[in-house]
Structures are given as C-alpha cells and as structure tokens.
Amino acid sequence: MKKPVSKADIRDELRAETERFLARGGEVKHIPQGTSGKSPGEPPLFLNRRLFIEPKAPRTLVPEVVAAIEARRREKPRRKTTRKGRLARPRRKVIYDDFGEPLRRVWVDD
C-alpha cells in the first residue's frame, strides 16, 4: 500500500525547492498580504476556456439499421414483471434506547 503524502512531507519538499532556488541566485520579493495575482477587471478563468473548438461532425443516418432494431423491439413479447421472491415474513427487530443500549426485541412485518 502506498503511503499517503503528509503535510510535513509537502512542507519539507517546498522548503528544499525554495533553498535550491535561492542557491542558484533566485530572489524572493515581498508581497503584502491580501494582494491577489489576478487583476480585478479580468473575467473568471472558467470563462476563458474554449471547450468545443472543433466544428460539429456531420452524422450519417442508417435507416436500415434503425428499422431492423425497431422491428426486433416490436417482436419481443412483453413480459409481465412479477416479483418472484421470498414472501414477506415477519422478522425480528431490536429496539434501542437513546444511549444505544438494546431495550427489547419485537417482530415486524415488512
């Protein structure tokens, strides 16, 4: 079973990446708390994505195949759906109090 990644592991990995970045001459700028990386005038990201870019593909109807399927469907005899299972029998049910302790057993019909 694969060990799940803990928050401590993620923190250690981020700390190591930051140290490597700074060791290569990278610089970290101080950004005040509450500043967003998104301009207030920009539309939301989900509106910028184009989902259905390709044009609609033409569909080819196959009337012979559709007619054969419909004919087979009409030929099938309709079966009555009756439920052949075990008959409803009374069963024992345990009644519990507010604390989860069993109080008594009763017979119920379902």
Explain this structure.
The protein has 110 residues and is α+β, with helices and mostly antiparallel strands. The chain is 31% helix and 12% strand. A two-stranded antiparallel sheet has the order 1-2. The longest helix is centred in the N-terminal third of the chain and has 17 residues, at 7-23. It is flat and about 80 Å long.
H-E string = HHHEE
Query: In what range is the share of β-strand residues?
Result: 5-15%
Which spans of ≥5 residues are poorly predicted at pLDDT below 50?
Answer: none
Total of DSSP H or I helical runs spanning 4+ residues: 3
Number of strands: 2
What's the N-to-C terminus distance?
43 Å
SS-based class:
alpha+beta
Work out the helicity level. 25-40%
Over all CA atoms, what is the radius of gyration?
Answer: 34 Å
What does the main sheet amount to? 2 strands, antiparallel
Average residue pLDDT: 84
Which term fits the overall shape? flat
Strand adjacency order, main sheet: 1-2
Task: List its traits.
about 110 residues; alpha+beta; about 30% helix; flat
Blueprint (SSEs and pairs):
Elements: H1 7-23, H2 45-48, H3 63-75, E1 91-96, E2 102-108
Antiparallel strand pairs: 1-2
Quick summary:
This protein has 110 residues and is α+β, with helices and mostly antiparallel strands.
